Amino acid sequence: MRKALDALYDGAAALAALFMVGLLVMVLLSILGRQFHFHVPGTDAYAGYLMAACGFLALAHTLKRGEHIRVTLLLSALKGRWKRGMEIWAYGFASALAAMFAFYSCRLAWQSRSFHDISTSSDATPLWIPQIAMALGTVILAIAFVDELLLEISGKRVERQSDEALRNE
To answer: What pTM value is reported for the model?
Structure first.
């Protein structure tokens, strides 16, 4: 099960990276269009869709690598079972929020498809298509939070420290 979950998180991150490359292509296409006087309709809208897809699909991978922003001031003051209790409460609360976010993201994509909702920009893209990435990303994030909660409850969670502080100047 662990390998399957890690593959899910890594696959979502790889898909996010692919969408980031697509975002780069859209931005470069827009820049080249201005420089060489041609216009490709919808590049701004597609760049936005790809940016949202990047962000949402990378959420779970970022969580599992310990790169999400955490306020550890309170946790660092706690010891033993108080700290563990706070961790369980935080992961439980985050799991509930992520599950609600996933539910409403999926519902939004479903409703957009049902109502034939389209983009108001010149591309007229059916909105459920870019919303799928948001829904998928939030579902995977909810799975990752529940995974972290279960690992914390069972005492198997490995606390990963971000090395972001080492890169600050």
So the answer is: 0.86
